[in-house]
Structure formats: C-alpha cells, structure tokens
Amino acid sequence: MKKGFLVIVLLIILFPTLNAQENNEGNYFQKNIRQRVVLGLFNSYYNDNIGFMCVGYEAVLNLINITPDFNLIDFGFGLNVLTAFDNRGDADWQGRPFTPRITPGFDLYYTLKIYIPLLKDNIRIFIEPLILGLVVFTRPYPETDDATGTYVNQGTQFGLGVEYRINPKLKGFMKLQWFHASNHKEYKNNPALEGIGILTGLQF
After folding, report:
1. pLDDT tens track for 58-72
2. CATH no. of 33-203
C-alpha cells in the first residue's frame, strides 16, 4: 500500500513536467510509451533444484527525458509466462527422477527502472529497485518434502543491467535479476521460490 502511494506521489510531482512537454511537443504519452519483449532463465539457489524460464511483454512509459533519445526513469507494466522445472518428475525404479516436472504459471507486475548516465554514446546502466507482482501457478507451488506452496503468491524482484541503443527506435538490454515468490505465511504453508536469473530483450 505504501509503495503504491509513493508511485502516485511521484506521478503527481512529475505532472507539471509531463504537461509542459505535452503542450510544447504534442501528446506526451504517444511520444513516450515504449514496448519491451523479454526472455529469461533462472535457477534457484536452495537445495530444491528448481529452474524456471520466463517470456514476457512490458508496456513502458518513459519519464524525465534528459535528451531526445534518453530518459532518466521509466515505469512499466508487464506480463511474464513462467515455466518451472523441478526434480519431482517421473522416477525410475530406484526413485530417482528421470524427467523434470513442469509447472506453468504467469507473473503480472509493475516495475520502476532508473538509468545511470551513459558510459559511452549508446550504452548505459540501469537498476530496477522495485518490481512487484502477482505470481500464479497452475498447482500449489513450490513443493518440498515437508511443505507445499500456493497457487497465488506475491512476487518481488530486483535487477541490474545494461542497455545498448541499436538505432533511434530500437534498444537491446541484458540484466541480472533476483526473483522471489511467496505467500508470506509460515514455511510449512509457504516454501518460497527464490532464484537468480539472466534476462535479455528488446525495447522498441
């Protein structure tokens, strides 16, 4: 609730800038809404041995343009399709899993991205200090020997990456991201899914 309030305050503070740019240059939102496609691969860092991948789409609003080509902040909404692979698939006669169990899901989220000044003409670093979302799996997940998660979880993520401008309308990026999904209950009802991933994508 507090984080949502902070986002609203930020937009109120920035409104005079947005309005001035709209009056001087036309429709601000048409000029500053971008799209991203993202592909990522994660691995959990506990002994649950879960790997998962995501394919996603983000709609992004650029804020605080410092040059015609670069902005300082952007705010986005996204949807990732998740596929988790764990070691609880079909087992051989000795009980060892020989196929991974696949669990689909999705992650609906919003993100705030802050850019650091350019390293070179077309390269800049960014941080994502705030990615919050709703993570939903097709079964209660994750599942361990002594605990089982839930269908619906809160997702929290943080990222650090680099962006490269390919041309005035196309940018590529790569980032390292920490992922957490849980329902904030006690462990027996909430074995959290946590992992580190590498993501890459395009903004256009």
Report:
1. 999 998 888 777 889
2. 2.40.160.20
